[in-house]
Amino acid sequence: MLRQNVKKYVGYVFLAIAFPFAVPYRVTNSRGVFTTTGQLLSLLPGKVGGYLRSAFYRLTLKKCGRRLYVDYGSYFSQPSAEINDDVFISTYCIIGNAKIGNNVAVSPNSHILSGRRQHASFQKDVPILWQSGGVFEQITVGENSWIGQASVVMADIGRQNIIGAGSVVVKKTGDYEVHAGNPARLIRKLF
């Protein structure tokens, strides 16, 4: 009981510390301000940095559940992300427009993109860096899923999935499955 109360009050302290970092985004509603602040906070090491990042995202994401932990070097690129309870984002991850279920672990160097069509290259006479028109989709990661190290997720992941290290998910997965490879393919059903 005492430990829970201490954690609760420490959480409030980190929310108070994170508040000045959240104000510029809340005032401007600028994705650039959101991303820049997230990148800055991603450089703070240790548990203090992790708790500060988590508090910042509680104040800025569309939805942020309890016990989100965002480790060193990781950040969200889209404020439209929705995070449920008990989510762990390991080191050097970038999370786009994602909807992440309860009890999800994202291993180091993994990325959840905002779909497969973020970047458009439809104009032959325009340099690729100057083209616009990409489509940002919300990618869902089902509850109780684990995304292995250095994976890239561009499509929805079902409930209780295991995504093998180094996988590139380009097609929606079902529930209770293991996927691995580039592109990721079904390895086996869990149940």
From TrEMBL:
GO function terms (MF aspect): transferase activity
The species this protein was found in: Desulfomicrobium apsheronum
CDD domains reported for this sequence: LbH_MAT_like
Keywords: Membrane, Transferase, Transmembrane, Transmembrane helix
Cross-referenced InterPro entries: Hexapeptide_acetyltransf (IPR051159), Trimer_LpxA-like_sf (IPR011004)
Ranges annotated as spanning the membrane: 9-27
Entry superkingdom: Bacteria
Protein name, UniProt field: Transferase hexapeptide (Six repeat-containing protein)
